[in-house]
């Protein structure tokens, strides 16, 4: 009986102690909490483990991105990927949430493979580097609004190509730029092995490897590096590369969800212009190793104005053509194709070999 009374007293003290602790936030000095029983300790341990697992699961869920953007690792490629990310976040509330979009850096040669293997969901490209034939099971339904298509002249000592002294060396790995430059300024020299990203080429210029260089103004703008520009070349003096200044976004052809996401970003005027220029390039069977230039734009009347050019690598021969027509997809494809076939016929075999 005495043992039973002690048990009841202990139970009452514990209950009373808990009530005071709940009300006041502390244990009165005259009362002490009884240690938890073994079963209580087990229960508390189980609750702690479950809470930890729940927290881990929540963190894991947050890390699963709705869209994985594949890109090369150069500063310009990353800038284009972040531009795409920002536009996606602005287009959909669910994509604006933290962790909804992940940027995955991939080697250039492996981006298409990563897309097909579902390691990424979309791939961001500079359109001027995209082959005229896309890999099987992929589509490229979206072009972002086009940046400035012109080329920039950069020099430490001159403000334009015309200011360079005869014999001055201009660094460019682009045959398109080389041929047009030498056609207008045959007294200049060109260093063809002038490669690397924008930062690398600017360093070579600063190191005195060349007197000047030419870079795409679009890339300099996206990198916020236009302070290096000495002057901007008019399109009449330097026709841009096909699709220069345009960003393209590709996805798998069977991925309707991604296609719908990126369709919201598409700039139709840019998409049609790029399609026209690529049709021109396809007709010529051209690549970055052939001096080809093409540019389609909307004129003041809303029509498509296309200009195309092919040149010999040494700049001694330049052939140009132009087309004007309706700013509509089918018409613009035909314009580009027709212009390419014309120049191909006029150039004849061996034109690009000189």
Automatic annotation (TrEMBL):
Cofactors named for this entry: dipyrromethane
Alphabetical list of InterPro entries matching this protein: HemC, Porphobilin_deaminase_cofac_BS, Porphobilin_deaminase_N, Porphobilinogen_deaminase_C, Porphobilinogen_deaminase_C_sf
EC number: 2.5.1.61
Domain Porphobilinogen deaminase C-terminal positions: 272-344
UniProtKB keywords: Chlorophyll biosynthesis, Porphyrin biosynthesis, Transferase
Keyword Transmembrane: no
One BP annotation, GO: chlorophyll biosynthetic process
PROSITE patterns: PORPHOBILINOGEN_DEAM
Residue ranges annotated for the Porphobilinogen deaminase N-terminal domain, each copy included: 67-259
Transmembrane stretches, start-end: none
Pathway: Porphyrin-containing compound metabolism; protoporphyrin-IX biosynthesis; coproporphyrinogen-III from 5-aminolevulinate: step 2/4
Keyword Transferase: yes
Pfam families listed in its UniProt record: Porphobil_deam, Porphobil_deamC
GO cellular component: cytoplasm
Molecular function terms from GO: hydroxymethylbilane synthase activity
Function: Tetrapolymerization of the monopyrrole PBG into the hydroxymethylbilane pre-uroporphyrinogen in several discrete steps.
Family: Belongs to the HMBS family.
The protein's name: hydroxymethylbilane synthase
Lineage: Eukaryota, Viridiplantae, Streptophyta, Embryophyta, Tracheophyta
């Amino acid at each position: 009986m005495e043992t039973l009374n002690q048990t009841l007293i202990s139970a009452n003290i514990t209950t009373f102690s808990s009530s005071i602790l709940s009300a006041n936030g502390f244990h009165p000095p005259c009362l002490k909490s009884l240690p938890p029983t073994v079963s209580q300790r087990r229960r508390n341990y189980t609750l702690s483990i479950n809470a930890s697992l729940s927290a881990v699961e929540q963190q894991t869920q947050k890390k699963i991105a709705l869209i994985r953007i594949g890109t090369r690792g150069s500063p310009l490629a990353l800038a284009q990927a972040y531009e795409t990310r920002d536009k996606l976040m602005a287009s959909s509330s669910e994509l604006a949430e933290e962790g909804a979009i992940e940027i995955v850096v991939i080697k250039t040669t492996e981006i298409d493979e990563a897309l097909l293997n579902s390691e990424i969901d979309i791939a961001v490209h500079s359109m001027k580097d995209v082959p005229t034939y896309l890999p099987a099971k992929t589509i490229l339904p979206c072009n972002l609004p086009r940046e400035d298509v012109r080329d920039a002249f950069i020099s430490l000592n001159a403000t334009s190509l015309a200011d360079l002294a005869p014999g001055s060396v201009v660094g460019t790995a682009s045959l398109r730029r080389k041929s047009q430059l030498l056609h207008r300024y045959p007294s200049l020299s060109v260093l063809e092995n002038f490669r690397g990203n924008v930062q690398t080429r600017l360093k070579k210029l600063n190191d005195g490897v060349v007197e000047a260089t030419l870079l795409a103004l679009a890339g300099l703008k996206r990198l916020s590096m236009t302070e290096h520009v000495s002057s901007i070349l008019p399109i009449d003096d330097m026709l841009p590369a096909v699709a220069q200044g345009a960003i393209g976004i590709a996805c798998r052809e069977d991925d309707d969800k991604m296609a719908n996401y990126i369709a919201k970003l598409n700039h139709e005027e840019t998409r049609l212009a790029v399609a026209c220029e690529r049709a021109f390039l396809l007709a010529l069977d051209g690549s970055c190793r052939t001096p080809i230039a093409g540019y389609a734009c909307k004129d003041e009347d809303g029509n498509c104005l296309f200009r195309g050019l092919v040149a010999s690598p040494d700049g001694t021969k330049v052939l140009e053509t132009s087309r004007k027509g309706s700013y509509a997809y089918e018409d613009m494809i035909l314009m580009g194709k027709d212009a390419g076939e014309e120049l191909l016929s006029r150039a004849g075999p061996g034109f690009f070999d000189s």
